[in-house]
Request: fold
Amino acid sequence: MEAEGISAPSSLSAKFEGSFAYLTVRDRLPTILTKVIDTLHRNKDNFFKEYGEEGTQAEKRAISFLSKLRNELQTDKPVLALIDNAEDTQTWNEYMQRQQDLMEDGKPVSWFKSPWLYVECYMYRKIQEALYMK
Reply:
């Protein structure tokens, strides 16, 4: 975007090694996911007491989903569309498509190449998806 010869700066992104965004995506986001996974695992007995075998299975699904997400994040895989039926799913997926359209090289939106704020918020939304999936 240019106005009188001035272009907008690039979005803060983990593609800039050493930047706040890079350190956040490389270090902080995987740590948050690890803490969520650990919390779920530590509470597996409570899930069983409260919900029986269904609670245990939900805990296992969420841990598997979040472990896969952490691996995708750490290896800069493409950011995948949400698949749950929450009322904001379509809005998130439309916004992801907008991010895809803005990618300079046409490559898929990924964890390190996308705007930092987007991928951080997306990670929290994916945690929500993991906790409510059936």
About this structure: The radius of gyration is 17 Å. Residues 75 and 98 are 23 Å apart (CA to CA). The chain has a mean pLDDT of 91.
